[in-house]
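Quick board copy: two proteins, each given as sequence then tokens.
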Amino acid sequence: MHVRSGPLMLIFSIFFLCAAMVLVSGCTDTTSSQSPQPTLVYSPKTTILIGSASVNPQVLVIDRGVTVTWINTDIGNHIVTSDTGTPDAFTSPLLVTNHRYQFTFTIAGTYTYHCADNAAIKGTIIVNK
């Protein structure tokens, strides 16, 4: 096999190097104005996991002003809603798998809630003064 080293090979080599440089330069982000997306951190003290038959924890005690996050870990869809008579009513949108809903409790008291699609899935949040 004979390798040619004429102008055609030189043009091909330059084209190949330019293409490689374009691909490599697209892999790095040199803009410093964009900050990375924040990593969501969930705490057992403020997070309720929704399962297929219950929530965990079933009773959560928090201070006033704390935001609670419900995360649907079930393959089914759920809607979390407060029971009648709670100090402040809340209802989540439809939560599909791995979606979350947050509510900030600003009024002290006892909040009972359930899943609108399955009343057996229920819990209590006690908000301290």
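And the next:
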Amino acid sequence: MDLGIAGKWALVCGASKGLGFGCAQALAREGVHVLIVARGADALGHAAARLLADASRPGATQVQTVAADITTPEGRAAVFAVRADFEIVVTNAGGPPPGDFRDWDRDAWIKAIDANMLTPIELIKATVDGMAQRGFGRIVNITSSSVKSPIDILGLSNGARSGLTGFVAGLARSGIAAQGVTMNNLLPGAFDTDRLRGTMTGAAQKTGKSLEAVMDARRSSIPTRRFGNAEEFGAICAFLCSQQAAYMTGQNVLADGGAFSGTF
């Protein structure tokens, strides 16, 4: 299927590896020009080389990089100094650490909210009006399945990402919807990423079990009996950015292998 987005520009955050890279890869395969952002310059350079080699239009698809922390004003300024206008924005930032809420002070909460709620809002604020003026825009926020099914040791993430979800629910249904701009959240469950291993390591330490035992137990709790991979996650993201998804907005798209057992 031709998604109808070749030649458009996308900003993809946290894109040097994991789910962010999967999204950038899927978009580049559709002929989308991408500006990828991550903190590590070396990893970002390797990611850019992989995207260029895998793009659907070798030599035509452009890949730009900005090594910066997108959760800071300085990082966002560095991105918009390179390019100000995008038709597609994929927000993504590493989740806050697991733990016991009794150990989190105000600074820990503010840091989580800055990264996982306020940063996406700032990126939306900086790009959405231009999208509306041009009559096309796609914003995809990578959040977490914990928005629908909270995880006790991820309280910082549960709280910050739920705040973003509530904000997006209102904005997606505002006047921008009639101007060709859609806004959706993509909620990953257990995907085979560094983040998953970090969470599983925390669970192993809490329970006294081995990491392998914790990961096997998690796999067995998923109806598909496996973890997801970044490539299939990216494909969902690319569809949400497509011309065909123009009638989808304000949605929370769950990709978790069927782990969430609710009907709605």
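Board note added afterward: The helical segments are 18-29, 41-54, 73-82, 106-134, 155-171, 194-207, 211-220, 230-240.
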